[in-house]
Every structure is written in C-alpha cells, then in structure tokens.
Amino acid sequence: MTTATDRFAKRSFTRIAAALFTVVIFVTRVCAAELQSSPEFPDELVHFEPLSTNIVFSGTGTDTWDQKIRERSWIVRDGDSWRMWYNGYNPSRTPTHFLGYATSDDGLLWKRSGDESIYDKGWIEDICIVKDAGTFYMFSEGRDDIAHLLKSKNGKHWEAQGNLDIRNVDGTPIKPGPYGTPTVFVENGVWNLFYERDDAAVWLARSKDLKIWTNVQDEPVLKRGPEEYDKFAVACNQVIKHQGRYYAYYHASAKEKWTEWSTCLAVSSDLQHWKKFSGNPILPVNPDDPKRSSAFLVYDGKRFRLYAAHPNVKVFVSRKQEIPPNKTHN
Question: Is 214 exposed, middle or buried (0-12, 13-18, 19+ CB in 10 A)?
Fold first, then answer.
C-alpha cells in the first residue's frame, strides 16, 4: 500500500529532478550563448609582442652538461614563483639529452638548480608536464623520438614509467617508428595525447589509466598544408581551453629541409576536428632566428606570455592587457 509519506517523497523527488534538469538546460544555453558571442580566435591568443628583447634562458655555452638546450622546455607559474624544466646536452661528452631545472621570481631571470642534471637515467627531450591530483607527469621524447612518461611528487625527483603504449582504433599497436612531441591535455578524467610522426602530421590518442593510449581515429587530426606556411612539417606544442574552445599551438615549416619554423594556432570544439587560424603564422619566421619554435602559453596573472623555447628561450606577451584567469586552463 502506498502511504501519504511515499507519495510526498515521490512528488518531492520529481520536483527536485525537474529543477535540476532546468538548471542544466539554463547553464548549457548560457554557455552556448557565451561561446557564440566570443570570437573564434580572440586577440589575446593571436597577437603578441616581445616582452624582452633578450634571450631569457639558454645553454651555458661552456663545457657543462647543458652546454646547449633544444626543443620544448616547459614553464609554469606556481604562485609567486616560476618553474622551468628543460633538456640540455653537451655533444662533446655524449649525444644523450638530460633533464634540467630552473626557477625564477618573474619568469625572466632564471637560476639553475645546480651544476648537474636532475635526471640522468635516460634521454629527455621536448618536455610537456601536467600536474594532476598532486602528482607531476612528464611526457617527453626519449631516444629515437619515442615518447615516454615519468612521474614525480615534487617536480625534482623523477621515476621512469616506460614508453607510451599507443594503439590503433582496433587495439593493435601503431606501426613501429618515432612518435614524438607528446602534448597532453587532461579533462574529466580523460588524458588526451597529441603526438607527431616525423613531423608529418598530428594524431590524437586517449587514455584513462596512462597505460594504454588508443587513437580516436587512425587518420591525423592535424595535417600539413594546404597553405605554404605548414606545407612540410607540423608538431603540436600545447593545447589549452579558453572561453569554451580548445586551442592548439603548433610549429610548422614551409621548407622541405625544415630550415625555418613558424608558430601557428588552430581551434576545435571537441579536440578532434581542428580549424587553422586564417592569420597564421602568429609568430612568422624570423630571418635572424629562423629555427625559433616550440612555443607555448603561460598566464602571468595579467596577460598571456608566449615562450618560444628553441633553440633558446625567448618570451612574448599578449597585446591584450587583462584576461580572466578562470576562463583558461592548460
């Protein structure tokens, strides 16, 4: 027999469910309206000017383990301090690239952590770091451009986790060969890995356990061309979410032998289908610094900075003065 209490509880549940559904619909419509009203490529993501005319970080140029640096370093603003992870090498000693660490009060003047690498147990190059639930995850190229993973609790002491196991859509391993420039974006418990193969194109694989990565499609999600600026090479350096859309910063080459590089931008609503900015490249080739590349954004509290990390670190700043930080994460 249904009691009055049962009927009251049922009516209350129905009302609560209806109210929650109304709230979800309202929030969805508000978000959709904000997305439609915001520009597809906002000024703060595409227009930059030099913050400093100087190189802000480079290899020592002397007979140290990090005589030279190359490709993507990774910089984060952590409260009032800045942290940088970089790969250094000394070709007169060994071809192997190792991991270095530096800190700064302003992101411009950097101090190395010491005279030695903080990780010398394997090849580290082209770094991407994600902090999730108190743990640092480093994705980098290893020897022969094979992407691998390391973990750390403090960002200084790292433990190798092995090469990334990437599978085709049907679960079979991708074909042997390099898979590098690993770029990772995490959202709702899903780890999104963007990787290139010989800089020919960019693929997307996903994982929930950081053990098996499965392509969302076996075709690339970002290809070369058809414009001249990225006709011969593309590699994704960073993916962020800003004002409801996803943005990928990537470097590209219009030269068959990759003697010049530019920095470009693409937008997506789902991380899988990308549209290139019609004004690309956002950092054109600099004739005096033709290999400038490996660029990524860092929010400094007021504006976005764009750090170009190869072959040394230079910094640019968004021309737009204020950007709400709660609308951006990476």
Answer: middle
Q: What is the pLDDT of residue 27?
A: 37
Choose among 128, 76, 68, 70: nearest CA to 107: 76
Residues of the chain with pLDDT under 70: 1-37, 321-330
Supply 270's token pair: 């789902």
* Residue 22 main-chain phi, psi, to 5 deg: -65, -40
What is the CB neighbour count within 10 angstroms for residue 112? 18
Q: List beta partners, residue 180.
A: 196
Q: What separation, in Å, do the N-terminal and C-terminal C-alpha atoms of the chain show? A: 56
Q: No. of H helices and E strands in the chain?
A: 2, 24
Hey, what are 276's tokens?
């290139």
Would you say 178 and 146 are in contact if contact means Cβ atoms under 8 Å apart?
Answer: yes
Boundaries of every domain in the chain: 1-37, 38-329
Angstrom distance (rounded) from CA 115 to CA 80: 24
Segment 89-139, tens digit of pLDDT = 999 999 999 999 999 999 999 999 999 999 999 999 999 999 999 999 999
CA torsion sign, 184 to 46 to 243 to 107? positive
Task: Tell me the pLDDT tens digit for each residue of 262-299.
Answer: 999 999 999 999 999 999 999 999 999 999 999 999 99
Q: Are 72 and 128 in contact (CB under 8 A)?
A: yes
Burial class (CB in 10 A: 0-12, 13-18, 19+), 186: middle
SS3 133: coil
Residues 87, 109: Cα–Cα separation, whole Å: 18
Token pair 């071809």 is found at: 95
- Using CA atoms, how far residue 20 sits from 3, 29, 210, 215, in Å, is 26, 14, 34, 35
Query: What pLDDT sits at residue 327?
Result: 47
Residue 198 neighbours by CB under 8 Å, 6+ apart: 177, 178
Q: Enter the CATH code of domain 38-329.
A: 2.115.10.20
Entry pTM: 0.88
* Dist. CA 287–CA 29, nearest whole Å: 47
